[in-house]
Every structure is written in structure tokens, then in C-alpha cells.
Amino acid sequence: MTRVGRDFGDTMQKEAVPPVSADVVFTSSRFPNYKIGANNQIVEVKEDPKVLSMKEVVARETAQLLEQQKRLSVRDLATKFEKGLAAAAKLSDEAKLREAASLEKHVLLKKLRDALEALRGRVAGKNKDDVEEAIAMVEALAVQLTQREGELIQEKAEVKKLATFLKQASEDAKKLVDEERAFARAEIEKAREAVQRVEEALQEHERISRASGQQDIDELMNEVQEARRIKMLHQPSKVMDMEQELHALRLQLSEKSKHSLQLQKELAISKRSEMNMYELDGTEALGSYLRICPCLETVPEPSECSFQWYRLTSEAGKKELISGATKSVYAPEPFDVGRILQAEVITDGHIITVTTTGPIDPAPGLGNYVEALVRRHDIEFNVVIVQMNGLDHSSQSIHVLHVGKMRMKLRKGKTTMTKEYYSTSMQLCGVRGGGSAAAQAAFWQAKVGISFVLAFETERERNAAIMLARRFAFDCNINLAGPEDRAALGT
Q: H or E element: which one contains 38?
């Protein structure tokens, strides 16, 4: 007979369904993705790489919760307990049958012993010994039967104890399942409330989105209407008319500026003493040139004198020598804007000083033109080489000067004459002297031993090229200027 121990009850308790709250977690933003696998174990499901909408997530989680509610059953557990109770009842019945059979065996053994005792009194000799041996065997069988009955009694007690334990375990399991089922219902109700709140939030979000979308459409319509109105106001013909008006206003302003400067010069001349024999002629602005002219017929001609031009700094009395500016004509360059120019006329051992009436003015529109060119990667200017390495250049063919963000290049067609990166040995400034064409010419020393005098198409392009090259070189931590300008900058 198989012995039933108490470990069976402990195993049944370990196989009970774990509490739902230990594995089911409801977060504030979404429901967990899980499913119930074998032995009522909750299995985590890998996240689907596909991004679902909020409605789909809510519908899927609701279906999973309903499925979980249905599957949270004690059907398997109850079946196991019922099988255990049936086994215990069967063991009890077998014990009763064995008890009845044992009683019958005792009665038979007693009758047999009594018969043998009666037989022993009637026989003698060898048969008597056999009878006594049979009586001893019957007594031994009675002892064994008594021991077996003790074991049966002990097994019966264990079976009763097991049945009691199984009954109590069944009641505890039912109570536990009822509690877990109530807890699961409460969790499901909370989940439904959360789903309802999410749906309400989605509806509110959709309502707000529709309202904001309508508002955005209205604002976009207003912007389109405003753009159409601006487009109608800025028709090409009107833009051309406005540009022509601006050009005419600029010309008038330039004429008035020249007239004002002329009046200022005449006023300054009238205030000067009669010892001032020379004056500056020309517009004191970038893009023009200044010429030293005699005021009296008795003074020496400029061809008989020597000259030296200076820049006056903001500090009174301090002036900077302009290297190479030793002619009667000087064309201001971008470095001279905002400064006063002064020229010394040396004749017969006397030095006569001539000074501009005010600082050199910038060229109108040059700043905007340079800013537009800065946005390009490489800027090209058509130039003519006037001098190369200090010698006149006979060819008057057109060359192209490239002013880039990292280097400058001079080429003719596909032939590159020189190409140099910005460096401390490079110099770029306006030409010192040269007559009326000086305002369109620039001096460029690409490196030591290679220099050019380049003539641009207009004064505007010459000044723009100088300003662009100095700006790009400054971005490379290099101050690009003339020889005297480097001394003034301390480089």
C-alpha cells in the first residue's frame, strides 16, 4: 500500500495562484502589455516596434483585461483538491475494508487455535508435536496480525489527518480565490475608470486640436491675404519707379553734398591767411580722388614740388604717414574713411600743410553691396594688370581676381598667375598717386617678391574688393592692409 505523506498538502499550497496585484501594474500613461501563460504565470510580451495610436492601445488593453478576468479561475485548483479528497475517501474505504478483514482473520485464528488445542489433548507422540508446532505458528500469525492492525490504525489516523488538511486547504483556497477575484474586479474597475478618463482626455484633445487647427487655418488665410496685398503693392513697375526715385534722390544728395563741400572749402579759404598758397580739390569721400592745386599764380607748380600724405588720428596732433603717397593726387581707400587727410607740400625748403575740411565720408551703398557679396563663397572681379613687380605691364587683357574666404587668386582664362592664402606677408591697399585713375586701382602684394597694380572697372568694385579681402583675412586672424597700415595696427 502506498503511504501518503504531508508533503502533498504543502505542494498544493505552493501551486496556488499568486496575487494579481503582484504582477499587474497600472501606470499613469499606459497599461502594461502582458498575457497569462502556463500554470497561471503572467508573461511579459515584448514591445511591438509598431507605434499604435492611443485609441488602439486603449482597446487592446481593455480586451486583455477582460480576458484576464475570465481566466482568473480556480477551476484547475478546485479539480486538484477534488482529486485529493477522492483519493483520501478511497484510502478511508480501503482502511475500513482492511479493518473488517482483520477482524475476520482474528476470529478464524482463534477458532483454529481452539481446534488445535482440542486436538492436542487427543493425540500423542509425533502427532502431538506437530499439533504444538501448528499452535505456535497460529500464535505467531496472531502476533503478526496484531502488528499489522497497529500499522493500519496508524495509516488510518494519517489518512484522517490528510483528509482534514485537504478540506481546510480547499476552504482556504476558495477563500483566497474569492479575495483575489474581488481584488481583480476592483483592479478592472479602476482600469475601466482609467480608460474612461483617457478616452475623455482624447476627446478633449481632439476638440482642442480641431479648434486650434481651425485657428491656424484662419491665421494662414490672413497671412496669405496679407502676402497677396503686399505682392500687389510691390509690383515690378512700382519697384522700378521707386528705384528710379531713389537714384534721383541719391544724385541730388550727392550734388548737394558736393556743393556743400565746395562752400565749406570757399569759407575755409576765405578765413585762411594769404600765406596759404595751395588747396585740395575733389570730393572728400571714398570713391573719388583729391588733388593739390595752387591758389595763386605766383606759387610753384605742383610738378616743381614734393608731397607727402598723412592720416590724422583721433588724438590731436598725431598723424600717420601713408607710405608711397608722394604725389599731388591721392585716392582715399576704405582705411581712410572717418579720418582726416593731410598733405605736406615741400617747395624751396618750405613746408606748406593742406588738410581736408573733415573726415573722409563712406561711399553711398557700398556697405550693403559688400554685405551682399559676403554671402557668396567666391567673388570675382574683372581687372587689368597695370604693373607687375614694379614694372609696367604692356598687355591690357582682362584678368579675373578671385577674392575667397581663405585665399586670393589672379587668373587669365584657365591660366592661374598666382594663388595665395591669406598670410602676414600679403598686402592690399589703394594705389598711391596715378592721376584720376587712382580711385579705380589697387596695390596687391601676393607674397614677398610678387606684387601687382590692378585696375578695376569701377571705384565701387575696387573698394569692395579691398574691404572683402580684409574682412576674410580678419576671419583667418590676419590683418590685411598696406605697409604703413600694419605699422599703425601694431602688426
A: none
Helices (H) then strands (E): counts for the chain: 8, 17
Collect all residues with Cβ–Cβ distance below 8 Å to 158 and sequence separation of at least 6.
3, 4
d(CA 113, CA 199): 91
Q: What is the rounded average pLDDT for all residues in the chain?
A: 76
Q: Which residue has the cell 475500513?
A: 96
DSSP-assigned states of every residue in 289-352: -EEEEESSTTSPPGGGSEEEEEEE-SSTT-EEE-TT--SSEE---GGGBTSEEEEEEEETTEEE
CA 163 to each of CA 14, 83, 159, 473: distance values in angstroms, whole numbers, following the listed order: 18, 11, 6, 101
Which residue is it, cell 483454529? 112
pTM, rounded to two decimals: 0.46
Angle formed by the axes of helices 126-233 and 7-14, nearest 10°: 10
The rounded radius of gyration (Å) of the Cα atoms in the chain is 59
Percent of the chain, pLDDT > 90?
12
Digit-coded pLDDT (tens) for 3-38:
444 443 444 444 444 444 444 444 444 445 555 565
Cα–Cα distance, 278 to 447 (Å, whole number): 39
Angle (CA) 349 351 309, round 5°? 125
Beta-carbon contacts of residue 301 (< 8 Å; ≥ 6 apart): 294
Residues 6+ apart with CB under 8 A from 106: 142, 145
What is the rounded average pLDDT of the residues 430-452? Answer: 86
Residue found by looking up cell 614740388 in the block: 305
CB 467 within 8 A of CB 447: no
- 447 has pLDDT over 50: yes
Please report, rounded to a whole number, the percentage of residues in the chain having pLDDT higher than 70.
72
Q: Which helix (H) or strand (E) is 42 found in, with range?
A: strand 42-44
